[in-house]
Amino acid sequence: MVEGKAVDVFWDLNAVKFNGETEPQSDYYVAVACKDKVVLLLNDLKKDAYRKIGCRPALIEPSLVSKKEHIFGKKKFISRVKFHEKGRLHEISIEFNNGSSSANTNSCVGGFDPEMEIK
């Protein structure tokens, strides 16, 4: 919930290609949707993302947002970012799960084992 509105986060990292870099280079998407509209989309698979999510794009063309972080040896990374210069800070959390914990109930979503959980 953000300001009383439900927010959904979708991602597909099944075929992501890193090409020797720490940042994903192709074949992935991470999307944030609110009220059946995609409000943030990071990817190179726009058409696939909209089709799989079942939401329409926002009426206003989004601005490119990019933040690059290099993370070594951590299982969880948390960062705070502003999506608009007049907006408030938002917390983004990325948690790595190598599947070694049998107590983790989120290890299998939709029939596949995700490598990262983005909250």
From TrEMBL:
Superkingdom of origin organism: Eukaryota
One Pfam assignment: DUF868
InterPro entries: DUF868_pln
Protein name: Uncharacterized protein
Organism: Nelumbo nucifera (Sacred lotus)
